[in-house]
Amino acid sequence: MTGPGRGPALTAGTPRRAPAQVRFTAAVAVLAAGLTAWTALPAGSGRAGTRPLLVLAIISAVLTVTQLAASLFAARTEVRPRLDAAAYRSPLATSVRRTAAGGLALPWPQALIVSALALEALHPARPWHTAVLGAVLLAFVLTLHLADSGDGARVLRPQLPLLVAGLGLAALSAGAALLPPAGSGWLAVAAAIAAVLVAGLAVPLG
Amino acid sequence: MLTAGPSRPAGVDWHLSGLARNLVTLGLAALFLAVVTRRPEFAGLAAPALLVLLRRPRQPPGEVTVTLAQDDLQLTEGDQGAVLVKVQGPAGTTVRPRLHPAAWITAGAARPGADGWHRLPFRARHWGSRPAGTLELILHDRWRLMQGRACVPLPAISCLPRPARLSSQVVLSKLPARLGEHVARMPGEGTEFAGIREFVPGDRQRRINWPATTRRGTLQLNTFASERAQVTVLLMDISTDIGTAGESTADLAVRATIGVAARYLAARDRVGLICVGRHLRWVAPGTGRRQADRILAMATTDSGDGDPLPSVTRLPAAALPPGALIIVVSALLSLRLVEALRELRERGFATIVIDVLTTEPDIGSVWQRRRDRTMARLARRVWRMEQEAIRFSLRELGIPVVYWDGRSSLDEPLAPYTRRKLVDRA
User: Fold this and answer.
1) For B68, which residue in chain A has the nearest alpha carbon?
2) How far is CA B142 from the centre of its chain?
3) ipTM above 0.85, yes or no
């Protein structure tokens, strides 16, 4: 059964399996929790502003997982629109629902990423710690996408060389930061950014 | 049946995907912190995100080709059907379809099938011909950085009403002289043994009962009952429609009418329909599959033909052949119809009413004032008494009224009249 349309028939990323999506959601929850805990360590060594940022990170992590679970529940439940007569609600219930929906619609994953990075910056410099945080953050972002889209990990195969190269650069920059400073910090940062750009242009892709 | 064209283009609205937004956030925040804190490890942390983002693809095409089909051609209330969708577009793009159903159907999760077809199951909860809803397509490019959204309105789907179950029949004691399958009291050419009588010249010799002839000494003949067809006219009253959608009085009336018509047509009776809605429409009694289709079409569609109900003074005589059994399916809320039933009875028709009134006036919630609720209760009590009076007056006229709740089989309420033949005492 083929139509006269242009191009090949589009398929789902991989056959969608609900348990896999549940597993990805659980993985997102674990990664969000680990991320928050990792950036909070070591406790008490952060500068001023660490505590509010930690609270923001925890709230963001919880609401990210809630957001994901809600969309997963909505996708797995049969959609049954209410008829008009049954759709009337009290103003209080309506406002509560609107507030909850509006709160869940905010970009909580991005808030979690920013707060985690800011927490890391508020702690004393530990390059290996930051490199591990980078790996966990990347895993969180990719797993979140898989859980949200319902596709399998196979859809990320085209990006694999870039991700490997990026992680290599992250390891290199962490290693460079461990060495005794040869010049100003600006120079090291500029060198790292230049390395990223060069790698982006050089990595071959099919 | 889905009446979509073979293929159609659908415009796609592309924007950054959630993955891309998160990677941008990660990369920019890490770069910002690297510059502010002068810590190169943050620039390294941004490397994977920036490398992926540097491969941002060219602008994806603005439209894809969508092909729609339906697997079940005939759909009845409560049946599960499925919309099949195939999307064609640039290579490497993945698609996730989702059905946003109209209020009368329930949609399930989409499942990818073979050969690029996606199956979107749904369950029709209410008969009729209405649009099924909207098909939403979520597309991702090869790098998962761009996400597209396309909406395709689905065409109307026709769903037939679920006929009421009926396995027995109300049969009149006197049937018109038409060949059929109901055993009549009159002797005739049927297969049902009726008795023995003395042979008279002209009788068929093959019907001679030889044992009886031997016993009595004269030629005795077997006689058989004639088999006649009944003329049944259904009067479907949908002039008032109260109750929740899907279980309203009109819904029940349509289901009962379709079920009764199917049962009588299966018994090779002649069946006609008078539809009392906004207009008065009717189908003269007939038999066969085409008559079933005519009755189904009239019961389920409002073509706008016929005489406007306010201008009608009496039921059409051509739709009411003499000796017909009239089965009325009504909530008995229209006093004009009640008067018409009285007139039918006066004209000598055997009539039986299937009452489909399953709801009562609402007296409001507990939050209303006590006095208002008391008045509402009183009004409902008066309304109940009026309904009782209407049904009592019909029974007094010799018109049985049976109640059907819409869920059980129609055999239960009609049982007192299907066990024996209905004697027409007009």
Assistant:
1) A3
2) 45
3) no
